[in-house]
Structure formats: C-alpha cells, structure tokens
Design brief:
This protein is of the alpha/beta class and 761 residues long. Strand 1 (9-14), helix 1 and strand 2 (38-41) form a beta-alpha-beta unit. Helix 6 packs across helix 7. The termini are far apart.
C-alpha cells in the first residue's frame, strides 16, 4: 500500500495502573520530555486495577505542556456519546487543542454488561458506534444552529444543544479489525488505530484496501484518514522485531511507513528508559529516513482537505497555489474554523478564503497571492467592522489578527509598539501595569489596525486626542509587496497619509504610539429618560463642551419601545483619579433629565474597554451613517429628537471629540477635522436602511465632515466630506506614488492624482 503522505508522529501506550497512580503520570511526562507527540491509555472502566482513563487523560493534560493525549481506545458502550462529546471539547479547550478521540465499539462484553450496559452483538456494536460518532460530531458542529436530533436504535438525542466548539479539529480514530468496522473507518473516521499484536501478515494491506474502498464509496479521499499502529514493547538489546540498536528499529518501522501507510507509531511500554530512547534516538532517525524516501519518490505530503470541503471552494481563487507561509492557517468555506472567521461583528460574510498570516512577511505573501486572483479582497484587524468592509462574498479576507504583540519600547518616552491585529482591550490590559493608556474607542474587541488608521475616537479623547494623533511610526505592506517603515525621518509623507487614510496605502502590520500617563479613571454610566430628547441632547452637548478636558462623554439614544420611554445612555470618563473633581463635574449631568440609573466607580482605564474576544458571527447588516458636528444647535437637536421619535434608527450616538483633538493642526495628518466637537453615528436595520439615508439628507446642513469608520455609504460625496479639498488632493498625489494600480480601493478608495493637477474646489 502506498504512503498516504501524513506527517510522521510518534507516541506511547501506557498502562493506567491504579496501584501506583503517579507512575503512569510520570511516564506521560517522560514521553513529553523525550520529544514524542502523543501519549495514550487503554480504557477498561470495568477493570478495578486501572485508573479511570478519562480522569487520567485530564490529569496528564494538565501536568504537561505540549504533548497530545488520547484514549486507546475509549469504551463507547460505557460512555454516553453526547456526554463524551462535551467532555472531549472541554479537555481540548483546556489543553489548548491537545486531545484526540480514540473510540472502540466494545470487546469484553461480560464485563461491560456487569457495569450496566446492554449486551450487543459485534454487528450491533458497529451500528451503535456509528450512531455515537454522528452524535459526537453533531454536538461539535456549532455552525449548525438547529438543535441536534439523532434517533438511533442504540443512541438518541432529541433537541440537544450544540457546542461548545473544540479548540482544534479533534480527530476521531477507531480501533478496528473486522470488515464492518473497517468500512466505518472509511466512511466516518479520521484514523485507523489497530494493534500490531492482533494483526497477521497481510492484514495491514487488506485493512487499508477495505478502508480506501469504503472512503471512496462515501465520496472521501482515502488520504484523509491517518493510519496509526500500536506497537508491542521493544528492547534495545537482543534480536528480532524492534530489538537491538535504534537503527534496527528504524529498519523495522520504515517499511510500515512507506509500504503500509502508517504515519503514527505508538509504543506500548512502561519503561522510562525505553521511552526516552524511542523519542530521542528512534523518532528523529525514523523521521529523517521517511523524509528522505519521500523526497526521492516525490511523495505528496501534508494535510489533505476533505472532498466535501473541496466542493465548497469558490471560483476565481487558486487554492492550490497558496504560498507555503499561509497554508497551515488558511481557512476555506468547508473548514471547521470558517464560521469563526467569515464574518465581522455586524456583517455575515461568505468569503471564499480567509488568509491568516503570522508575520509581516506572510502579509506580503498574502497580498501578492491575493492580487493574482480574480476576486475582491478585504483586510481585517479585529473583525469589528461596523462599516462592513472587513469581509466580503466570494473574495479573500486577509486577517492580520495573529500580529497582536503589545510592547513597551521606552517607558520614559511612553513609546509603545502594537501589532495591527491586537485588540484594544488587550492593549489596555498590557499597558495598565505601566501606568499607561491609549485612547482607543469604546469597545475592547476592536482591532488596532482599522481604528488607528481612521481616527480613534475614545474615552480619553478630550484629554488625549485621537488615537492616530500619537502615532509616530508605522509599518505596512505596500501594494507592490514591499515592507516599509515610515516615521518622521523615513517617508514622512506616507506617515501623514497613514494617519487618517491608511486603508488607501497598504496593509498595516504595526504602529508605534506615544501613550498617555493614565492610571485609574472615574468611569460613570448614567441612564436618562430621554422623552424630551431635543432639550436633553442640547443640554448634554453644552455641558460636555464646557466641562474640563479631563471629561469625555459618549451618549447613546435608543427609541421608545412599547411602554418603555426613549432612553439616553451616557458614559462619562474622567481621565484621572481626582475623584473630588470628578464628582463636581459628574453631578452636573444628573440635572440634564430624569435619571433612571447611575453608577460611578474608580477603575483602571483597562476596565473601560475590556476585550471579550467574542466570536464575530455577523448580524443584521445595518446601514450606519457618520457625521461630524461642530456644535449641537437647537435645530440639530430637534432633528435628532424627530429621528429618534420616528423609530427609523436602532441607535443614535454622539461622541465628544473636541478638546485635545482640536489642538492638532488640520494639515498635520490626513484626518483634517479639527474644529468639530462631536461625532454623530446612526444605524438602522432591515427596512429602515433606506430611511436612514433620507434622514441624512436632512441632517447634512448641520454636519461638517464624515468619520469613515462609521460610514456604510461609499459614494464620492462621502469621500469629499471625509477629506477637505487640499487634504484629498495630497492623498491623491501620494496614492499615485504608492498605489497607482488602485489595489487598496475597497475602503473609500481615493483616485490617484498627478502632481501637477490643480486642487479641486
């Protein structure tokens, strides 16, 4: 039988003796120290001389760091599959993806019956195991939203809730010898796990043939199925199979790998010395021998995607042409991780491929690959994406979430380096012990890259300014694939453009930012009855403008629903720990409107933007519109109250963006709006999407600029509102230098402008 091309892994098969429980744990730890990949334990719940295998698996996983664990194999008749599924996920999550599920249909039936399970014939055992696999995989399938129902002859679930999802794709390996079990391996399993001691000459070849035939009949590629083998205890002295020096072991095992397709060898031994030599001497020599033989034979190696996954590939993408740096982490529509990466916070995307580069060079590789495809692409840092541009339908998403480092470069200068994929909540948590903070929006799961290149309206805005105001260097991948660093001395014009129009120039990989000296802050939330919305909104805005710069406030307005009045939810942050001054300022807010609820507390800044790391599964794809406001006039307040009363918006928000934001010269960054005191955001779902555009036409005379991160309308008019003429012309001239081919036009693309073209007025 030919080599199936799987990577070679090696492990141990330990006896779970209860007489000396710490001995088997020590052997598992020795397995890890020896450099082996896997430790397994037999499962005989009816055997009083043995530890319970599941408890042992959990204990060993907790007492090791790297090695994978598995039952070899678990006794399904005595382990209800729905419970087993959740236990498997729990152990996989707690171990960081180090669990494999080896299953058996049961063998010692007198003992099994004595433990309370019904007796099954061998054929019934196979059928019961197939039902169990269906239930286990169904529990793991969190992409499916309907409750799980399996009405089998031996196992039933009726409306079981699915989830949680495991940390990685948990493989299911079956211990199998007879034709029906081998057929089940081919149809449903990820691996075949027999013991060499129970096989006769030719059984491996015959078993592989039966599995391959069954897999093909089920529409699967036989290479999807790993072939594992339990080996009897060997010795490094004497003669015979697995006897003698390590090179003799290699000679014995090499044909099993190359001719019988075995890619996982599991040594049954409870001798620490044998385990050490197996891992330290046999394993590397065997890997080298297999690699050399494969190279000579031209064997195709690596992970084989299931046929069912291949069928979900989208046109226009050369999936097989992915650079090596991206293969291991790329996600296709048929992959288990697809549901986790396809969508943003509010938009349910369906990209044809999500690339997850692990470093800046891989980002360059991803861009080069993407440019060669005939599909659109999007760039994602955190996945929040209120405007919906960090995912797509049928295209490619370059997700830089793995570039998430947070490093204090110089505490005295308050200089911080952030990876573009870091979440702002994690940034805040990492900087808090240093007494530093960066104003960065109001939600901790937002990624660094998108926010820092567009603006950054945060809870410290009036005292600190926009996030981008403090960016002193940026690293990004340009359209031609170059990795560049821009700062005051290196391509300073590019740094100017990145700060406010960064999406037009490349893919950000890292920034250096000057943080603020911030320890604890006063964080207050006040819920108001906003029935008299016009008066309330104008009074709130006037109070915010007149307050000391230490105070920044965001006000969210929610329309009346049923018997519930319209409410205003105000967040007020006082940017230091002077509680006496904070109380004086906060008390004035309590007179703005009837207060329904209030709370104020002294907390670290990090507590105001904690990262929840929630999975972004999309939502109702609302239309969102953004605009900047110099002052909330009575006329504007009346219009906002009218919009709220009409029920044409799900949420209306005003953010304070004055103070330090307006200290910056409008020409200093591509974000040129330095006279406005508030940022307005409105969103609407479903049929109200059209109404919000109509409302924006009425609001337009009161708005002076657009904050692009909140804007779903990408019309040229919005672009002209986002950038004043001189600013837009400078961006266009730089665009002609850095992106003349319009590669980065997916997020409010600016047209390249020749240097001698006059500035439009």
């Amino acid at each position: 039988m030919p080599d199936y091309g799987h990577d070679l892994t090696l492990g141990t098969f330990l006896t779970p003796t209860a007489k000396n429980p710490q001995q088997v744990v020590a052997l598992a730890q020795a397995t890890e120290r020896a450099g082996l990949d896997l430790v397994t334990f037999q499962d005989h719940p009816y055997q009083p001389a043995f530890l319970d295998t599941w408890t042992l698996l959990s204990w060993v996983a907790a007492s090791t760091d790297r090695i994978h664990v598995s039952g070899n194999v678990l006794n399904v008749p005595l382990r209800p599959p729905a419970v087993l599924a959740r236990a498997a996920v729990s152990l996989d999550l707690l171990s960081g993806g180090r669990f494999a599920l080896g299953l058996g249909s049961g063998a010692f039936w007198d003992a099994i019956v004595a433990m309370g399970a019904p007796r099954l014939t061998p054929g019934q055992g196979v059928d019961a195991l197939e039902e169990a696999i269906e239930i286990i995989r169904g529990i793991w399938d969190t992409n499916e939203r309907t409750p799980l129902r399996v009405h089998g002859a031996y196992h039933r679930v009726d409306g079981a809730k699915r989830g949680p999802a495991p940390a990685h794709e948990i493989p299911i390996w079956l211990g199998a010898y007879k034709p029906r079990m081998l057929g089940l391996v081919g149809r449903k399993a990820d691996g075949w796990l027999p013991s060499l001691g129970y096989l006769k000459d030719g059984d491996l070849a015959a078993g592989n043939a039966r599995i391959d035939e069954s897999a093909q009949a089920a529409g699967r590629d036989p290479r999807e199925i790993r072939r594992l083998l339990n080996l009897g205890g060997g010795s490094f002295s004497g003669a015979g199979f697995l006897q003698g020096p390590p090179e003799r072991w290699v000679d014995d095992l090499l044909p099993l790998a190359l001719e019988d397709g075995i890619s996982t060898f599991i040594l049954g031994s409870d001798d620490a010395g044998t385990i050490a030599r197996f891992g330290e001497e046999v394993a590397p020599a065997l890997r080298d021998a297999v690699a050399a033989a494969r190279a000579s034979a031209g064997t195709v190696t690596g992970t084989v995607r299931p046929v069912a996954s291949l069928a979900r590939r989208r046109t226009g993408i050369d999936y097989d042409g992915l650079p090596a740096s991206l293969v291991a982490t790329a996600v296709e529509p048929g992959d288990r991780d697809y549901a986790r990466v396809r969508s943003s916070y509010l938009y349910a995307g369906s990209p044809g491929l999500v690339l997850r580069p692990q470093d800046a060079q891989a980002v360059s590789d991803a861009l080069a690959f993407t440019r060669a495809q005939d599909v659109p692409f999007a760039v994602r840092s955190g996945g929040h994406g209120i405007s919906g541009r960090s995912t797509n339908d049928g295209g490619i998403v370059i997700d830089v979430g793995a570039l998430d480092t947070v490093e204090v470069l110089d505490r005295e200068r308050r200089l911080v380096r952030l990876g573009a994929g870091a979440r702002w909540g994690d940034v805040a948590a990492a900087l808090s012990p240093h007494g530093l903070a960066i104003s960065s929006g109001d939600y901790g799961d937002v990624g660094v890259g998108g926010l820092v290149t567009a603006g950054g309206q945060g809870f410290l805005g009036r005292s600190y300014g926009l996030t981008l105001d403090h960016v002193v260097a940026a690293e990004l991948v340009l359209a031609d694939g170059r990795l560049v660093r821009t700062d005051a001395e290196h391509e300073p014009d590019l740094l100017w453009a990145v700060r406010g129009a960064g999406a037009n120039f490349g893919i950000l990989t890292a920034v250096e930012i000057e943080a603020a000296e911030v320890g604890n802050v006063v964080y207050a939330t006040i819920i108001f009855d906003a029935t008299d919305a016009a008066r309330f909104v104008q009074a709130w805005a006037e109070l915010v403008e007149s307050s000391p710069r230490e105070l920044t406030s965001f006000l969210s307005l929610v329309p009346a629903r049923g018997q519930d009045p319209a409410v205003g939810y105000a967040i007020v942050v006082w940017a230091n720990d002077d509680t006496e001054a904070a109380v004086v300022a906060l008390e004035l807010f309590l007179d703005l409107a009837p207060v329904l609820q209030q709370q104020a507390q002294l907390v670290p800044y990090a507590a105001t933007v904690a990262a929840h790391h929630g999975e972004h599964t999309g939502g109702s794809a609302p239309a969102s519109r953004g605009g900047l406001v110099e002052h909330v006039t009575p006329e504007l307040a009346a219009l906002l109250a009218e919009l709220l009363a009409a029920g044409d918006t799900d949420m209306l928000q005003l953010r304070a963006v004055g103070g330090a934001v307006n200290d910056v010269d409008p020409a200093a960054t591509a974000y040129a709006h330095r006279t406005q005191n508030f940022s307005l955001l409105a969103s609407a779902r479903s049929s109200r999407r059209a109404q919000i555009d109509a409302w924006w036409e009425r609001l337009a005379p009161h708005l002076h600029g657009v904050y692009l991160s909140f804007e779903t309308n990408q019309s040229p008019a919005r672009l002209a509102e986002a950038f004043p003429p001189e600013t837009l012309a400078r961006i266009g001239r730089l665009k002609s230098l850095y992106d003349p081919g319009h590669v980065f036009d997916g997020n409010f693309g600016v047209a390249p402008m020749p240097a001698d073209e006059p500035v439009p007025r």
